[in-house]
Write a structure and sequence with these properties.
Largest sheet: 7 strands, mixed
Helix content: 25-40%
CATH class: Alpha Beta
CATH architecture: 3-Layer(aba) Sandwich
Radius of gyration: 17 Å
Number of domains: 1
Shape: globular
Number of helices: 8
CATH superfamily: NAD(P)-binding Rossmann-like Domain
Strand order of the largest sheet: 3-2-1-4-5-7-6
Distance between the termini: 26 Å
Structural class: alpha/beta
CATH topology: Rossmann fold
Length: about 240
């Protein structure tokens, strides 16, 4: 692969680190507003091998925040649609597309049989998120996990922390509880917001697979979470900060 489209990245990082990125394999689970942005930032940074996982289809309400969502893509597979976008950025990308819903721990174990260098967790359902995190911990695969981006508007309150140090995030609270039952008390890096979510943004009447509720979002917050996740994944690979 040519360094040409990465010339600015090469100026910043140097050829040696860019080669490390090109030889690295990153998994991104969940391709909504958070995960799609994380995946795109990885590709634009020069990660050479990517696996993307999501079984959902694009719906109209995704338009306010998801990079791969356009009106002509409504009803299409999130994973397949994002794959086309990523390959249009870097045609030489080695890309694996898993367009199915993983809902058992063994699904994650089988998917991660060939250990990637890093995993990004952008799954928005609790049990599946925890199954992925636990599998990564058991396999000693570095994982960076997204907590809740919904119901929040302040980008200045986004943090990177250990899961044990999260607060003001209900998703993180339940993740901590499930991980503790699995004997995991700390050692999982997460992106979370300390902003208290707006209660009026939550609704309980939408029926979505694996969810009991849906929460309001604004365009930039999920994408900022995705940027933080990709930055942490890249730092895990390169140790640049």
């Amino acid at each position: 692969m040519s360094f040409e489209f990465l010339s600015r990245t090469k100026l910043l990082l140097g050829e040696e680190k860019l080669e490390i990125l090109q030889n690295s394999h990153v998994f991104v689970f969940g391709l909504g507003g958070v995960g799609a942005c994380a995946a795109e930032m990885l590709v634009r940074a020069g990660v050479g091998k990517l696996s993307i996982v999501d079984g959902d289809e694009i719906v109209l309400s995704n338009l306010n925040r998801q990079l791969h969502t356009l009106t002509e893509n409504i009803g299409k597979s999130k994973a397949e649609t994002l794959a086309k976008r990523l390959l249009s950025i870097n045609p030489a990308l080695t890309l694996s597309v898993i367009s199915k819903y993983l809902d058992k721990k063994k699904d994650f174990e089988e998917t991660l049989e060939k250990k990637p260098n890093v995993c990004i967790d952008a799954i928005d359902t609790l049990t599946n998120k925890c199954n992925l995190i636990i599998t990564c911990v058991e396999r000693q695969i570095p994982v960076i996990s997204s907590m809740g981006a919904g119901g929040r508007v302040n980008p200045n309150l986004i943090h990177v922390s250990d899961i044990s140090k999260t607060y003001n995030c209900r998703l993180a609270y339940y993740v901590r509880k499930k991980l503790k039952k699995a004997g995991i008390h700390r050692g999982v890096k997460v992106v979370f917001s300390s902003e208290r979510p707006k209660k009026e943004s939550l609704t309980l009447d939408e029926k979505v697979k694996g969810k009991k509720s849906t929460i309001g979002t604004i365009s930039y917050l999920p994408n900022l979470f995705g940027c933080f996740l990709s930055a942490e994944a890249i730092n895990t690979l390169l140790k640049i900060y």
